[in-house]
Write a structure and sequence with these properties.
Blueprint (H helix, E strand, L loop, with lengths): L11 H12 L3 H6 L1 H26 L32 E5 L7 E6 L4 E8 L8 H7 L1 H10 L7 E5 L3 E5 L4 H9 L3 E8 L11 H16 L7 H12 L1
């Protein structure tokens, strides 16, 4: 397998490409500009995932870290058998979870902004535990939002056909029912490219800082023994 280069940052052309694609969403235009997609999105995204791999492996070895499509990268082309309209998404998604529609961490690139956070799947399933844990461990979850300084530092969206904002500066103490009563939740920071370190290797520690802040909440999504997992995290990462 070809060795991936070190991650040195994304590019201003990363966002310029997405903006241009939004204005020219056709197969012909994309084929003429595919080198831009590869150079400014795919290649740095794979390097980014590759460098984050050891951190996620230590954090939780069940989280997928392969720098591949359908693993940690979402393809930009739509499956037109099931989709209507334009053939390409005008965003690019990097995500770290265990399986499709699992709760997961994400970095989302839009034409004019970046979103970083966690997707919470609050539905029933054999490997989905958030719904029961929100009821059983409500006080613990409210406490961790305060302990890890999550309160009022993230916005809460619900994911339907399009993400819909429910609460700016979400606080679990004041608005816990929004977690309980919605199925697919995004807890995220939205940043302008110039307000992050995305154009340098420093975007790696910036992302890690956010993941470490949100991981205690993630513990309640993947096991029916979340406090044990949380204590293990605290012992390892402090």
């Amino acid at each position: 397998m070809k060795k991936l280069p070190s991650f040195t940052g994304f590019y201003e052309d990363t966002f310029r490409f997405l903006s241009d694609l939004k204005e020219n969403n056709s197969v012909d235009w994309f084929h003429k500009n595919k080198f831009r997609y590869q150079t400014f999105l795919v290649e740095p995204a794979k390097a980014f995932v590759n460098e984050l791999g050891p951190f996620f492996n230590q954090l939780n070895p069940e989280i997928r870290t392969e720098p591949k499509f359908n693993k940690t990268l979402m393809r930009i082309n739509k499956d037109m058998r099931f989709a209507k309209g334009n053939p390409y998404r005008t965003y690019f998604l990097i995500h770290f979870g265990r399986f499709k529609m699992d709760s997961e961490f994400f970095v989302y690139f839009a034409p004019d902004e970046i979103q970083i956070g966690v997707f919470l799947n609050n539905t029933k399933g054999d490997s989905l535990f958030l719904k029961n844990n929100l009821l059983k461990f409500k006080s613990n979850i409210i406490d961790l939002f305060d302990e890890y300084d999550i309160n009022e530092n993230y916005d809460l969206f619900i994911l339907q056909k399009e993400p819909t904002l429910l609460k700016r500066n979400f606080s679990a103490f004041n608005d816990f029912s929004l977690l309980e009563n919605n199925k697919h939740i995004l807890l995220q920071k939205t940043k302008l490219p110039g307000k992050t370190k995305i154009f340098s290797a420093d975007f790696i520690p910036e992302t890690i800082k956010i993941v470490l802040q949100l991981y205690p909440l993630y513990c309640f999504t993947i096991t029916n023994k979340p406090l044990q997992l949380l204590y293990e995290f605290q012992d390892t990462f402090g």
